[in-house]
Amino acid sequence: MPVATVLVADDEPTIRHVLRTFLESEGFAVVTAADGVEALEAYQHNGERIDAVVLDLGMPRMSGRACLEALRDLAPELPVIISTGSSTEQDTEDLTLQGASAVLEKPFRLDLLGDALREVLNR
């Protein structure tokens, strides 16, 4: 039985694959999405079983920031970890105020993602 189910949204297929493989090796079930629109659709269809979200900030069709806002409207308590390739301390603070549970700067070590997920799920 999985530890938890994580929705991973990233527009890079390689990143989705690496994150899925790592998270499954850590005991998580994984649902993937290629952009913010797919992430919202996946949450709307599987919301009752999704325990946390890993959300890329820069995606086509719907940005991670817009997706975070929509997820907050649907599920205010859902842990959402933002992954971003370019953020400043102010961006991190703004994302936290918008409801991000954590912000990871790309490239990040996979063990840091695992630690962040366990931390936000145990809050």
Description:
The chain is built from five helices and five strands, in the order βαβαβαβαβα. It has 123 residues and is α/β, with parallel strands linked by helices. Among the domains are: 1-50, 3-Layer(aba) Sandwich (Rossmann fold); 79-109, no CATH class. Helix 2 (36-46) runs parallel beside helix 3. The relative contact order is 0.18.
Write the layout of secondary structure elements.
Elements: E1 5-9, H1 13-25, E2 29-33, H2 36-46, E3 52-56, H3 64-74, E4 80-84, H4 89-98, E5 102-105, H5 110-121
Parallel strand pairs: 1-2, 1-3, 3-4, 4-5
* SSE order, one letter for each helix or strand: EHEHEHEHEH
CATH architecture annotation of the domain at 1-50: 3-Layer(aba) Sandwich
Shape: globular
**Mean pLDDT, all residues:** 93
Distance between the termini: 21 Å
Radius of gyration: 13 Å
β-strand percent reads: 15-25%
CATH first level of the domain at 1-50 = Alpha Beta
The number of distinct helices, counting runs of at least 4 residues, comes to 5
What structural category arises from helix and sheet content? alpha/beta
CATH topology of the domain at 1-50: Rossmann fold
Number of DSSP strand runs: 5
Sheet with most strands: strand arrangement: 2-1-3-4-5
Spell out the CATH superfamily of the domain at 1-50: Response regulator
pLDDT < 50 stretches: none
**Major sheet characteristics:** 5 strands, parallel
Q: Into which percent range does the helicity of residues fall?
A: 40-55%
